[in-house]
Amino acid sequence: MSGLFTRNNKKDDQEDQHNNTAENGSTSNMARDSAEHEPTERDRLLPADPHRRPPHADGYLDPDDPAVSPYNLWTVRAVRYITIFFAYLTVVWWILLFVSIFVSPPGLHTRGSGFTDFSFTTLTLGVLLCSLLFFSAPSMAMRVCQGIIAVLLLVDMIIIVSIARLRAEEGPPGIASVVWATLMCMWCVTTDRIVASGKREEEERLTGRAETRRTLSGWLGVLLATVILVVYIVIAFFLTATLIIRARDASLTYDGNRYFVDDGKYKVHLACVGNVTEDKNGNPYPTVLLEGGESALEYDFEYWVWSAIENGTISRYCYWDRPGYGWSDNAPSPHSAGMSAENLATALALKGEEGPWILVSAGYGSLVSRIFSARNLRNVRGIMMIDPMHEDLLYRIGNPWIGLRRWGWGILSPLGVQRVIGAVFKARTREDRVYGEDAKYTGKYVKAKLQESLVATSLTKSEVATARTIESPDTPLVVISSGVRMANDEDWARKQSDLTKITDNLVSWDVVNKAPHEVWHTYDGRRIMEKRLKELIKAARKSKDVVE
Questions:
Q1: What is the 8-class DSSP label of residue 42?
Q2: Where is the segment annotated Disordered (predicted)?
Q3: Is the pLDDT reported for residue 341 higher than 50?
Q4: CA 20 to 30 Å from 337, out of 241, 268, 359, 520?
């Protein structure tokens, strides 16, 4: 019995020795293999442990081990660094576009979009940051959302590049912004796929299988990323819808022509109606030159002048759109009333119009007319101002909070929510959007109002003050004021009285009771305006510069 036990022990010892020899051989083989080649990111992170028991007897890691990460792959790390680099470039471009809203650097001026390039860049930055924030947790939902945004941006790029008017309005900054936005969204889709593939590969290499589960924090991350990207999809959708509407509005015809001003940087719209008439000595009678107030002149201010032509009160008038209004492009920032007066003079010269002029203006436009009059004394035969803005009240539109609010509306204007709703549900026409009731929602108009606000108490006020000192005292003057505004605003009433003294030749000053700031909206207002215009023309014809 004892001998049998001894033989069995010897047999077991021989088997253990054989197993140890095999294991040592295997270990030495692994060491030799390791010595033969340098380890790569796809090598097993830990060698097989012969003493471990299932389920980790093969050397695999637990799926929740921090070492199981797609960042183990150099390709994933490289893609992340490239994405960060793209984000830095986008931030620099975003800053440049932000600055150009207030002071336009050379080459960064967009002629008719206002804030569209800035909005595209902001969307691009948002998509890149979202991709970086959830970089190591890729999901199909993120790829689908990013793909939808990329498709919408591709449509935007095609619209801008293919429509000549939009291409001119956006210019190089706008085109570059939409192209960059499209490429970055495509890059984010590719990045997410690369990370997802790398994550699956690392899980198979380190844990033995691709992980199909997510932790609660992982699902919350996917949900948050999806919600953010859905918001971006809505933004991209409205950007696309607004561009489609802008492309439709670009086909609207207009009277007159558009002329390049300010060394060819942008165009302004100018048109004339009626025929030039002359007195018995061959001298031309004055042409009425209209300057709108706080909205596009074509909206309703021009209509009463047209009726004055029909009944023979006047024979001819010209009108134009200040930069940012109607069919005129945006001007680079900053832009003051005096700069608008120079634009008007340039457009008139390009059209071949020499005057003489009777200036008829309203609201803020009266500041432009006064500057134009002071700079063109020989050709101005009379001034008619309708509830005009006084230079001492410019602080009201130059208030920083007003400027901040307009900037905020400008940032939102490329979405065109009001224009899209108006076109779909309220049957708004192209005329409504270009120069009518909905024109105030366009980025071009908002930028023009922001520009007026930014320089109201500095450049514009200084220009008007200078114009007042050199205005001809003999120029016939008519002032028509809003009775409602004067009754509700003592400062406004006092400054209206002061405006009757900008020349020494006051023809009349009328206060139209029950008339709002837009005096021509009432019948009495239109009647008095036409009556005073007729008197002003008679006074101008009797002036010393006109020979009867």
A1: T
A2: 1-63
A3: yes
A4: 520
Listed residue (118, 103, 238) closest to 178, CA to CA? 118
Average predicted confidence (pLDDT) for the chain = 85
CB 486 within 8 A of CB 512: no
Choose among 297, 457, 263, 463: nearest CA to 375: 463
Kindly indicate the confidence band of residue 10, based on its pLDDT and cuts at 50, 70 and 90. Answer: very low
Tell me phi and psi for residue 258, to 5 degrees: -110, 135
**Distance, CA of 45 to CA of 145 (rounded, Å):** 35
Q: How far is CA 190 from CA 84, 195, 444, 525, in A?
A: 15, 9, 36, 64
- With b for 16 or more beta-carbon neighbours within 10 A and e for fewer, the 354-381 pattern comes to ebbbbbbbbbbbbbbbbbbbbbbeebbb
Q: Which two tokens stand for residue 271?
A: 């048109």
Task: Enumerate the domain spans of the chain.
Answer: 71-249, 257-541
Helix (H) or strand (E) holding 386: strand 380-386
Predicted local distance difference test score (pLDDT) of residue 47: 52
Per CATH, the number for 257-541 is 3.40.50.1820
How are strands ordered across the β-sheet holding 357-362?
257-261, 266-274, 316-320, 287-291, 357-362, 380-386, 476-482, 505-512
Segment 51-68, tens digit of pLDDT: 444 444 455 665 666 666
Closest CA to 509 of 474, 535, 471: 535
The CA distance from 250 to 252, in Å, is 6
Tokens of 327: 């069919």
Distance between CA atoms of residues 238 and 532, nearest Å: 47
Euclidean distance between CA atoms 221 and 205, whole angstroms: 25
Question: Would the pLDDT of 182 be above 50?
Answer: yes
pTM of this prediction? 0.82
Percentage of the chain lying above the pLDDT 70 cut:
83
